[in-house]
Design brief:
Elements lengths: L1 E4 L7 H13 L6 E4 L9 H18 L5 H5 L5
Parallel strand pairs: 1-2
Length: 77
């Protein structure tokens, strides 16, 4: 997941778009979240909610579910 702010002077928009396109061309599951009125940090409350929603949705889609039986099985301890 690539998060790009439109006012980010540390990472120009073109670099974020290039990273996203490179991932897409390589077949890597990827997502671009572009926030045109943010800089390097997401500071507005509304954009922070969008970022948080998209980030945790991305984690759910990307990370395999934890095997709860292994996590709660502590017979060896």
């Amino acid at each position: 997941m690539i998060v790009q702010g439109g006012k980010d002077y540390r990472v120009p928009v073109e670099q974020g778009l290039q990273a996203f396109q490179a991932a897409q061309l390589r077949g890597i599951k990827s997502k671009l979240l572009y926030l045109p009125d943010e800089n390097h940090w997401v500071l507005s409350a509304q954009n922070a909610l969008v970022w948080q929603h998209e980030f945790f949705k991305w984690l759910e889609e990307t990370m395999p579910p934890a095997d709860k039986s292994k996590a709660t099985d502590k017979k060896g301890f």
